[in-house]
Amino acid sequence: MASKQNPEALIEINGLRFTYPGIDGHPPPGSKPLIDNFSLTLNSGDRCLLVGSNGAGKTTILKILGGKHMVEPHMVRVLGRSAFHDTALTSSGDLCYLGGEWRRDVAFAGFEVAIQMDISAEKLIFGVAGIDPQRRAELLKVLDIDLSWRMHKVSDGQRRRVQICMGLLKPFKVLLLDEITVDLDVLARADLLKFLRKECEEKGATIIYATHIFDGLEDWPSHIVYVAKGTLQLAMPMDKVKEISKLSLMIDGSRVAGGPRAVNNGWAAED
Ligand SMILES: Nc1ncnc2c1ncn2[C@@H]1O[C@H](COP(=O)(O)OP(=O)(O)OP(=O)(O)O)[C@@H](O)[C@H]1O
Predict the structure, then answer these.
(1) What is the ipTM of this complex?
(2) Which atom number of ligand 1 is nearest to the Cα of residue 53?
């Protein structure tokens, strides 16, 4: 994470404040903002794990970053632009959001189609125009997709793999992932995380990944952000988290008879 002035910042959130509108389209009078005074800056190559309990506001933050909710343009800048107002950010593929409603549908030949329709994986994946064949082949391998799968007959995890593949076909600069890996088996998830890490390290992409499943993620993120009740509680590079966690193990080890207390590597946090 970097200072607000850093020109390399791919994501800049400055004092974000957000309240869901009521039925009249306006925030209910006197309502407390769901997200309040939230600031965060991520640079090229950063891989940020967004954690927090149910209802903490993770999806809301990702949707705002993905341009799905309107906020004042100065509060959220993605690639230096306002995600809500600059629709070219998403249409170009530079900003990619995978989560929420996306779980039910995929973009196919310019339309949103139900992911469970009677269609082959091949038709869906090869139906996306203007894709680098090498990238497509790599994703098919990473996600271990059988092109003959019929989407209405495959398992949830297999369907999700096709969907993730389609979402990642276009190279992105900023990727927002909202719990999209829950249906994947351990190996598929590990391969996907490896691919995503490579995109950051080699192409300078930035990823925010919201998840409750921390298994196998110890070495994936470069940063961790913990949110509770819409407020940023902690934003830290992983190196620092590991340092603190080691330190706390040493301190506890010297205090507690019988050895160090498990601190769960600094990952688990309760609201
Ligand atoms: N469209 C909406 N209108 C009004 N309130 C909403 C809307 N969407 C979410 N909320 C509320 O905002 C709060 C934060 O929801 P959000 O989905 O951002 O949390 P989350 O951290 O992603 O939770 P989870 O881990 O369960 O997915 C919740 O209290 C939720 O009820």
Answers:
(1) 0.97
(2) 25
